[in-house]
Design a protein that fits this description.
The structure is a homodimer. Chain A has 12 helices and 7 strands. By secondary structure, chain A is an alpha/beta fold. The first copy, chain A, folds into 2 domains: about 190 residues, HAD superfamily/HAD-like (Rossmann fold, 3-Layer(aba) Sandwich); about 80 residues, no CATH class. A 7-stranded mixed sheet of chain A has the order 4-3-2-1-5-6-7, sandwiched between helices. In chain A, a hairpin with a 2-residue loop joins strand 3 and strand 4. The interface between A and B is medium-sized, with 34 and 35 residues. Chains A, B: This is Acid phosphatase.
């Protein structure tokens, strides 16, 4: 049976093993539903969301084909390879200034508009076949956290069904989640633009359909699964609602919060996770410290 | 292996058997996705949608508790047990007059508002434990079509994964689809009101989130599954898009249209299915005639 080899013996591992034991004893297999955030929980989200690289490459491609787009600061930043501009737009948003984010959103939403979902998947596959992480220097598909992949396998070995519930793009994740996490497309919940049905095919639009973050994660999990999860793992304020959702029922349950406190092996940051860390303490959620609980962060290194 | 015992040997059965043989040969198991409409395809939808009974009972309960509601014709009809009023509202809608439907929609959307999804499921279970079909005189859970249940089992036995994609309420169907069809909640796609996340629980609102009909079925199937189905079964114009979606790709595929032409054993009607029957002929979709293709309509009778 799959173990948790990359977890130090400690409070986090003990809480997981204890919870799984109670779930196996008290919860029917079909009700053993586990949900995982992706960015920062299953794979690395720094220095920028991996999906942002996918989007910025497309903006650079578009502005190369149509130089008039440089009038728009998002395309200009993309053409210049200025990823910091995009990160700043998100930071400004968290500080209450949405002006740059609005410029960015328009470009991002239209970046892949008009493709069939199959064509979009081909672009995603081409991206992952080619792109490498800017500081780790390995393919993005090697940027999953080994202890979390072991946890996915450990839960599955104990009759759980794992879902991903991420703020990232549903159709951006689907092509690689089977390979990276053993989670097939039908168990990937994420954000999406609207789709149009045209001549027997589904095509992406530039209209947002929903942003799968915060309380929307709980709504989308129910919409997809029709069961309340008993396990939820996240790493940020956007995961609070699904962690509350998983732990509000009388069944055995566990909420696991990944803490990014390992500047040597990964990154050290709390921005965007402040409230979730407070609630973890207040509610007794389990915190997995990258530095203290994980013997290895990434597979093979 | 499960067979198709309630199907006469004929063109429809032959087309199914031939298709399944080609799918098993040419399509990887994870891509063998089948989608089924529910009302009129898996269970009886006449003389009225089963869910309408569930809603009208609730309206009658509400007007009994608050007699001022009789000012509203929908509650008045519910109190009087006048199901025909509701049927007429739908017919008028199809004839271009939405006035009664709008009155009806407001009442229907608010009928179960404010419940947690678990409380709503309890109401659904209580309804199915109690209610019987008005003309067939059996519990609604005995109103599934035996040949279609055999088809679900036949596909599953050949490595298919079955989903329901219905215009009916997602959370109205979920409590009984495992028992009736062997389809668990996570594979039920249907219409829904919006849900609010409140104190760790999900509660129904009176705001429609989406109506899972027509092209929306194709969008929702992709959203849920992340794969294009290769088999789609329906019985009405609302199923055209998903049948086109399933058959537009190069893989072996089958679209099956149930024709209600058996006034003795079930009902004989084409209203709402006119265009789908035309397209079935034009596109070579398989038509299953209740009268000619099914040896038995309902289990045990």
């Amino acid at each position: 049976m799959a173990g948790l080899e990359s977890w130090h013996d400690g409070a986090a591992k003990a809480a997981i093993v204890d919870f799984v034991g109670r779930a196996v004893r008290d919860v029917a297999p079909q009700e053993r539903v586990a949900v995982f955030d992706n960015d920062g929980t299953l794979w690395c989200e720094k220095p920028a969301y991996i999906q942002l690289d996918f989007l910025v490459r497309r903006l650079a491609e578009q502005v190369a084909a149509d130089p008039t787009l440089t009038d728009n600061p998002a395309y200009r930043a993309a053409a210049a390879g200025d990823l910091a501009w995009f990160g700043d737009a998100v930071t400004q948003h968290y500080n209450g200034d949405d002006s740059a984010l609005k410029v960015l959103a328009g470009a991002v939403l239209s970046a892949y508009a008009g493709l069939t979902v199959e064509e979009h998947a081909e672009r995603v596959n081409a991206f992952f076949a080619d792109a490498t992480h800017p500081t780790l220097g390995v393919p993005y598909t090697a940027c999953g956290y080994r202890p979390m992949v072991e946890l996915l396998q450990y839960l599955e070995a104990h009759g759980f069904t794992n879902y991903i519930a991420s703020g990232g793009g549903r159709d951006f994740m689907r092509p690689i989640t089977t390979q990276m996490y053993g989670v097939p497309p039908e168990r990937v919940i994420g954000s999406s633009v609207g789709l149009d049905f045209v001549d027997g095919n589904l095509k992406t639009t530039s209209t947002p359909e929903f942003l799968n973050d915060g309380p929307v994660k709980a709504v989308r999990i129910w919409g997809r699964v029709g069961r309340r999860p008993i396990f939820a793992a996240g790493n940020s304020n956007g995961d609070i609602a699904m962690m509350e959702y998983a732990t509000a029922a009388p069944n055995p349950s566990l909420a696991l919060l990944v803490r990014h406190d390992d500047g040597e092996r990964e990154f050290d940051y709390v921005a965007g996770a402040e409230k979730s860390l407070q609630l973890a303490e207040a509610n007794g959620w389990t915190v997995a410290s990258m530095r203290n609980d994980w013997t290895t962060v990434f597979d093979g290194r």
